[in-house]
Amino acid sequence: MAWDIAGMAAVASIGDTPDAIFESLCRRRSGIGPLRAFDAAKYRTRRAYEIDDRGDGGDRSFRATRWLRTVIEAALADAGLEANGALYPVMVGTTLREQRSAELWWRHAAPRPDPDRLDFADALRDVPQAGAVHTIACACAASLCALGMAADSIDLGLADTVIVAGTDALTESAFGTIDRVQTGAPDALRPFDSDRAGMIMGEGAVAVVLRAAGAGRRHARVRGVGMNCDARHATAPDPASIRDVIADAHRRAGVDPGEIDLVMLHGSGTHLNDAVEASVLADVFGACTPRPAMTAIKSMTGHTLGGSGLLSLIVAAVAMRRGSVPPILGLTDPIAEAATLNLAREVMPANPAVAQIDAFGFGGINAVAVIEKGSL
Questions:
Q1: Closest CA to 50 of 68, 30, 66, 70
Q2: DSSP secondary-structure letter at 194?
Q3: For the Ketosynthase family 3 (KS3) domain, which residue ranges apply (predicted)?
Q4: Which CATH architecture fits 3-373?
């Protein structure tokens, strides 16, 4: 089976459309900046990849919801699905939902929010094309898990079109937790570099319109999505499970490793995650000639949490259309585990036809998608 991405949209710290984000990546434009959402003096890490939309009044409630509405409406318009009475299921991958809105109220920095509006289902009720809304909270693999569930829904005949999205805004509780548990205090996210010091949160939202294959124009075709959850450790990735989910994605897509031209790495910038991902990929693609190009966009967008996998997928779709792969910013001395990988240190001219997208979350929640070049 296969499914087409008929429309797509995204907003992140480095751009507000898929093409703008791609161009920023190729220009090595990072979204990192001084932490603005809350008092940075409380934390060791004092920088983040934030969307600059707060104005002069301090942090605001419901930013994640506003981005979600914006990208869903833009993706529908991109797909040519204007409001005509049809309703489409919506699957939203997220890690934090609207936790920041509740924090602002708790800190007396904003009025008490309507509890119903903390639920994306209620928040999207006035989007004319939005049908039943399902929130998928699968940590940092959430939006790719949502993509897999949407594909299953189409295969089961439950819908012929599904809106898949992801959104997350910085929250102080999550930022503070990460700041405490990481051994270092990174000033930037540097995936696969020997001097990487850990993960830094980013903000963003992304949406795609997924339709049964052959329904019309497409940015890319989804060939298969693999998902698993090993639950072996709260934070440490398990190499066997990551190897298994990659193999499952390849099997579902009907490809072997030698047919993958591009890998969008999870690349969280943490010591263990990068080492495990690199070692597994070195094993999976070790016999391939040539080896696929690989890049990690979190080096410029930060870790956008629940939407990060789908954001990487959109960047892959643009890369296949434009014939180039953006670099990994800050990669000067790759880790030993990545020695045999074809990591993009500069903009890499390429003509990828098949791409693999990795997303690995806390608790061993893993998702990998395989897509092929679109027709646009």
A1: 30
A2: T
A3: 1-373
A4: 3-Layer(aba) Sandwich (3.40)
Residue with tokens 């609207």: 98
Q: Domain map of the chain by residue range?
A: 3-373
User: Is residue 216's pLDDT more than 80?
Assistant: no
Confidence of residue 76 (pLDDT cuts 50, 70, 90): very high
- What Å distances lie between residue 363 and 7, 57, 112, CA to CA? 31, 37, 32
Q: Cα separation of 76 and 230, whole Å?
A: 35
One-letter identity of residue 170? L
CA 334 to chain CA centroid, nearest Å: 23
Per-residue pLDDT tens digits for 246-297: 999 999 999 999 999 999 999 999 999 999 999 999 999 999 999 999 999 9
Helices 142-155 and 308-322: angle between axes, nearest 10 degrees: 80
Residue 299 has phi, psi (to 5 degrees) of -65, -20
Entry pTM: 0.96
- Categorize the per-residue pLDDT at 164 as very low, low, confident or very high, splitting at 50, 70 and 90: very high
The separation between the first and the last C-alpha atoms of the chain, rounded to the nearest angstrom, is 21
What would the pLDDT profile of 278-288 be if each residue is shown by its tens digit? 999 999 999 99
